[in-house]
Amino acid sequence: MNIRFAIVAAVALTTLPSWGQGIQVGAATNINISGLLAVGVKHSSISQGNSTATAWANRNALPSETHVDDNTSRLIISSTSKITDGWNVVFLMETRFTADVRPGANATNGLGFTTPVANVTGVADSDTYGGISSPYGTIVVGKSTLYYTDTISAGYLAPVLEAPGEGQRIWDANGLGTFNILSSYMTGAAVGGTFYPAFANNILGNTRSSNVIRYNSIFYKPTGKDLLDFSLAYTKNAGGPEGEAVPNWGYPSVYTPSPNSSTYASGGTLYARMRYNGYGISASGSYLDQKFQNKLSTAANNELKAMRLGVSYKWEGLKVGVVYDNATSVNGVTTALGAPIKDATRTAIAVPVSYSFGDHGIYATYSTAGNTAGYADSGAKQLNFGYDYALTKRAFVGVWVTKLDNAANGYYAPFLAGFSFGGSTVQKGESWTQFGINLNYWF
Question: Which domain does 437 fall in, by range?
């Protein structure tokens, strides 16, 4: 189960890393080694929310801390082997490593349980796949990032990776509004006529989807001065091995063996994405339909439907964009006993603005999540401000400030914070602030 330490892949699946160290193996095979070192020194604090149940819940014990944090460092090994002209066997293995703690240290800790770093990140614990590339596109099978990173921009690495969303060169893993706002949604139960959200779930419940069969088109040039491409993917079980299923409560990040092997026949995830870059415009559209296994069509939280659209315009060094995300957890609002009442739907919007000049970059992003299923005051707002400086073409240092404010009944959380993926540690109405000095070095 992949549940932590993910952000956007360094390259598109159709474009293997080209800046790393290449090793020629035989006459037709090349192996490339590249990666990312991403570390930060951060100070974060949490304000009092609406919960007063215990000291850990209302943050009286530890309202703030200063720490060194890994922002999802990784090592990438890729390979191409020529079959014939225009046809190649391709392979990519992305390994996550933590620059701040040892593998035996705890990545999660709370409510009486701990999870070591080695259990949530490690060798090949990221996008890892093999397949065939051809003049008609690429088909790969393995683990693949689907949907939740869509619209994050890495145009500073390659023009084809320009996207309408956040694109800071020293991104802070906790502070990205794409994950905290766009890629979270809330479900919950109605008690006595009042809806109580359970917590904010990650959009997929996992970060790298398993069992994926994916097709990536070639890059089309409609006018000769722009690029258009699309991806299609299917997986029987995005979050776990074959024959496993989502249990009760509808928490997509938790998987247990199915009590009945025949339920593996149900469920499945469909994904599609299209991108366009040209004439200063960057646009992206994504669609996801995930039917969870071991779930009847009438069960609570049995299906997730999501759509993300974004567009931006870049003129000289100024870039302005807007991203819209809509997520629906089918039967996501239930009675106190778990009987479905209606779907849990929320919309979210992010507006990133950036300006680059010389080696400098200035960034600001405003993100907001609306109420879920009409539940009053269940949304959140986030502001990001950043400045970075290019030490080299692929090494950047700078500062990052994030402010995340939940409405009175909101549970949105900073990505990879706390002891549980997706924000279950956050209490109702809390606010979170972080200041960081970060270094990103693509090697």
Answer: 39-75+127-442
